[in-house]
Amino acid sequence: MPETRPDKRQDNPPEYRHIDEQPWEILRWPGQHSKMLLHPRPERPTEPNAGLVRYEPGSHHPRHRHDFAQVWYVLEGTFKIGERVIGPGTMVFHPDPHFEEPLSTETGGLMLFVQYPGPTTGGRPIYDGRFNMTERKPVEAENVRV
Q1: Complete domains list, the chain, with CATH
Q2: 16-41, pLDDT tens digit by residue?
Q3: Which of 36, 46, 67, 128 has minimal CB crowding within 10 Å?
């Protein structure tokens, strides 16, 4: 039960999600699948979009941009992002707005993602064509804004 603070604001209890409770979903880019544990909802639009993204060997995405902010944490695998090669223990912060440099992985891997509304742009991480896809479009058919 939420508690009320002396200033009358309500403190909310923690919420728990276990990775095994979520199915793997198709993501926008080739060889990427996600298990998002949190999604923004109409009643809580500033809630982050957070979870895991699994990359198959050979996964990649082109340079593209977003208006939301995000943090990635590499748990497994080696990734080339732009000209930099990163591995487990590396955190990547993308402020808003931002470009994501081309990403590729020969090893495959796993990253923790936390995406949240852009503090300066108000851009949201959930929009049509990014999550819960039944079929992935070819990269060249994507509307990639650079």
Answers
A1: 25-135 (2.60.120.10)
A2: 999 999 899 988 888 999 998 888 88
A3: 128
